[in-house]
């Protein structure tokens, strides 16, 4: 066994039987100190000494994916356990941890950092340190995303990239968000009116030429919102397509975005300073997936971005940015990097006998070059490592599971607050919920349904997509319409589903409404006015509507999958006092019958067990959905990214 003195914290003895993992070997950076933790506290990282530079700077190889077994663990001395601490010296505090989605060793770092950081100041004020976490290590963080609310949004990706940066900035980080400047030549362009031309034009080498882009910028809520301007972003439609389908040049449009995003921290003077090379790229979905590949293939060979790190955040594995192999030459990457994006479809997926199945897959490129991988719930982070949920990438994702985590999204609690929501006709809160039934009757009036405060009202809001299980709802409607209920669906997307919604509305005029379109105000009114929100998603990386629903006292009935499973607690009618009675219903398997059974249980409870229903509403409304909570966990993952050397040097 090897011993090691680290800074002022004492001797750390390390178990000799732990071998080094090539995946995770790395160097702990300058602000990091290792801290001896007692057996009562648990470990964060197990480290093996590599060299000691001076008293306070120690280099380690981490062996994080080699935790001792329970038996080994109980035989280990206290001092085997070494926690990576970012802040030295402050009084240690017992960790009170409520985070369920990070492994035990890792999650302790989240809280202990925060507690320790604030301990010194707070002790003097006599305030409980656990309630006042602060950030001590601040980073330069660059989000790269195809959509960002309120500037652009087709769904949850836009929401997340509009809110999480603000939460991280509020915690002291310098945060830039890079996204396209989509203008349509109509009044909706007003959203970009606060973003001014930075007068910085660069030329990007890709697609056989030099593509000139400009940058626009707005500083709002502590965040640098940077918009890449290029003629290919100037057209009607949403970020990805229009009524004729997906744009055929999406690979071009998002390749340009990625190159521009890599240049932004180097060339843009924001508030007088660039972000510089030592930044953390948080790249979202396939549209931003070339960023980590570019860092490795284009920049690092020239000594640039050696200190940067990247994290790919997967919001939806169903979209991977797959295009024919011959398009590789357009991406502005060195030829020898083809293997990073190489993708060969299995024989059964090929279209004809001469089809070799060769393609490029941008998301795959991100998965094999990023320093860490995140998804938007812990449940989904496991599902994507399985054959059923991995969309062909499960093998690769499994091979990197030691750096794969899930963090459940937060929600914008200012926008989604029934006590102050400007889109709803009556306001309410957990202390006085009377406005909710008024919202319901107002919605019934608005939709031309019978105004019946005690008739159970079920809602659905979302993209009309196979993912969301819309087909299951539509197939169940004839049976559901036998019951004394009202049903309202809001959504747009697949034409066939839109037409079915219209047809059902004309068949069940007194009970069913299908609102085809995209309307944020209507989505708020449905969330407030309904009693039940239905989400039979086939898969759901996180899901936001169930979170909005619970905050509005609307009880979710959801398929037990991904983030829905992680966020909706199944109702227990006989739960003992003090234990959670649940916040909704989760059904499984995904079938019409099990969905109908869950809905009927919910409706029965609404009608016949009023006090249970009130309990359900309150449990949902009491939950903490703030982005600050999620941001703390992002900070932790960011620190882990900087603990190791770049995954691809
Ligand atoms: N017709 C309409 N009118 C008004 N508003 C509408 C609407 N249709 C959808 N919305 C809004 O769009 C958002 C949808 O968010 P979701 O998280 O449910 O799904 P999405 O699949 O888009 O996102 C992906 O990314 C997010 C973010 O990580 C994950 O939560 C999710 O599981 C994953 O599939 C919500 O804010 C919803 O209210
Ligand atoms: O917020 C909703 C989802 O938005 C994104 O998905 C988009 C996807 O990334 C785009 O590529 C495009 O998807 C098209 C796909 O590329 C094409 O092969 C075909 O299947 O049609 C798709 C639909 O047009 O649009 C998607 C949005 O509709 C984002 O990546 C996801 O995380 C979000 O769930």
From TrEMBL:
<dbReference type="InterPro" id="IPR011835">
    <property type="entry name" value="GS/SS"/>
</dbReference>
<comment type="pathway">
    <text>Glycan biosynthesis; starch biosynthesis.</text>
</comment>
<keyword id="KW-0934">Plastid</keyword>
<keyword id="KW-0035">Amyloplast</keyword>
<keyword id="KW-0808">Transferase</keyword>
<dbReference type="GO" id="GO:0019252">
    <property type="term" value="P:starch biosynthetic process"/>
</dbReference>
<feature type="domain" description="Glycosyl transferase family 1">
    <location>
        <begin position="454"/>
        <end position="600"/>
    </location>
</feature>
<dbReference type="GO" id="GO:0010021">
    <property type="term" value="P:amylopectin biosynthetic process"/>
</dbReference>
<dbReference type="Pfam" id="PF08323">
    <property type="entry name" value="Glyco_transf_5"/>
</dbReference>
<keyword id="KW-0809">Transit peptide</keyword>
<keyword id="KW-0750">Starch biosynthesis</keyword>
<dbReference type="GO" id="GO:0009507">
    <property type="term" value="C:chloroplast"/>
</dbReference>
<dbReference type="InterPro" id="IPR001296">
    <property type="entry name" value="Glyco_trans_1"/>
</dbReference>
<comment type="similarity">
    <text>Belongs to the glycosyltransferase 1 family. Bacterial/plant glycogen synthase subfamily.</text>
</comment>
<keyword id="KW-0150">Chloroplast</keyword>
<dbReference type="InterPro" id="IPR013534">
    <property type="entry name" value="Starch_synth_cat_dom"/>
</dbReference>
<protein>
    <recommendedName>
        <fullName>Starch synthase, chloroplastic/amyloplastic</fullName>
        <ecNumber>2.4.1.-</ecNumber>
    </recommendedName>
</protein>
<dbReference type="GO" id="GO:0009011">
    <property type="term" value="F:alpha-1,4-glucan glucosyltransferase (ADP-glucose donor) activity"/>
</dbReference>
<dbReference type="GO" id="GO:0004373">
    <property type="term" value="F:alpha-1,4-glucan glucosyltransferase (UDP-glucose donor) activity"/>
</dbReference>
<dbReference type="Pfam" id="PF00534">
    <property type="entry name" value="Glycos_transf_1"/>
</dbReference>
<feature type="domain" description="Starch synthase catalytic">
    <location>
        <begin position="140"/>
        <end position="398"/>
    </location>
</feature>
<dbReference type="GO" id="GO:0009501">
    <property type="term" value="C:amyloplast"/>
</dbReference>
<keyword id="KW-0328">Glycosyltransferase</keyword>
